[in-house]
Amino acid sequence: MVAGPTASGKTALAEALAALLPLTVVSADARQVYRGLDIGTAKPSADLLRRVPHRGIDLVDVGERYSAGRFAADAARWIAEIRSAGRTPVVVGGTGFYIRALGEGLFHEPALDAGRREALRAWTARLEPGALARWAGRLDAGFGGGGRQRAARAVEVALLTGRPLSHWQRVARETGAIRPWYIHLTLPREVLHRRIAQRVDAMLAAGLEDEVRRVLSAGSPPGAPGLDAVGYREVVAGLGGALSRDRVREAIVVATRQYAKRQETWFNNQVSGARGQGAVAPVWKLDATQSPTELARLVHERWSSLTPDP
Predict the structure, then answer these.
(1) CA torsion, points 258, 262, 263, 267, in degrees to nearest 10?
(2) Quick one: 203 and 283 in the same domain?
(3) Who has the most CB within 10 Å: 27, 58, 125, 167?
(4) How far is CA 85 from CA 55, 88, 300, in A?
(5) Phi/psi-derived region of residue 34, left when phi > 0, alpha when psi is between -120 and 50, beta in every other case
(6) Domain containing 139: what range?
(7) Do residues 204 and 69 share a domain?
(8) How confident is the model at residue 274 (pLDDT cuts 50, 70, 90)?
(9) Domain with 300 in it: what CATH number?
(10) 195-204, 205-214, 266-275 — which is least confidently predicted?
(11) Which residue, of 119, 149, 171, is where some domain finishes?
(12) In what order do the strands lie in the sheet with 54-55?
């Protein structure tokens, strides 16, 4: 798995690595699953998608939820198919819950009453984000935040199964889906902040605002699951008048920096603990200020030394 904060160069590393071995990328990005959200999610270019097979992109509509558990089930199947085709699966992404669900095991949800589930979802949709997070914390002592969708999921599982989501996740860890080798890309803070600002400017120049307009004009509500993400939230607020247009760019930069900090904290606390869970190889931190070509060379050499000859 190639993990790291946003703008750390994960996609560039995967592209460079694809020149050294036949790989297929499995995207572990919770926003790239949405059709029509291309610019703000930094999806791979059409040219890269033609050259390097990808799974986990453009799976659902903007208004649909796509959980970490669903990703883990889909990704486990994709990885098996990729290996059967004689290729190397490389999981690439910055969504920690996706990475943990795949690497530590899948929470197999019991059958839930459909009527109660829909009623509960309607209720949580009416709650303010702060109130929803407080409910999640009361019902699940292990709830660690993660946005509106994550909080709603914690409330739903706790009330409909009688046990908190953190309980089911602990059970799932006992039978992890895969034994990953983690490559953790890191950057000095000032370099990461500079890359984030450059990425935001590039997204805005590429038409992020027009992309959001198209999604909204197609009928998606401003609070749709796909639009509840850094970058999209700020543009929606700007278009709706809740945020002045000249402040949108800075708001995205600040929110992205905060998100990257949370990602880095999560990877340091969660991924680094993989050593104790029987991972195939130790977590390997790499300085992402090096060129993608050099990083790919280092990764390929290490992978070759760990992989037995057929």
Answers:
(1) 150
(2) yes
(3) 27
(4) 14, 9, 20
(5) beta
(6) 111-171
(7) yes
(8) very low
(9) 3.40.50.300
(10) 266-275
(11) 171
(12) 54-55, 23-27, 88-93, 2-3, 183-186, 284-287
Q: What is the CA radius of gyration of the chain?
A: 19
CA distance 7 to 257: 10
DSSP for 146-203?
A: --HHHHHHHHHHHHHHSS-HHHHHHHHHTT-S-----EEEE--HHHHHHHHHHHHHHH
- Mean pLDDT computed over every residue of the chain: 88
Closest C-alpha among 81, 39, 57 to residue 202: 39
Amino acid residing at 263: Q
Select from 108, 100, 122, 118 the least CA-distant residue to 163: 108
Structure tokens at 210: 């027009």
Global pTM reads 0.76
Q: Verify that 296 and 151 share a domain, yes or no.
A: no
CA 172 – CA 300 distance, rounded (Å): 31
Two tokens at 71?
Answer: 């990703």
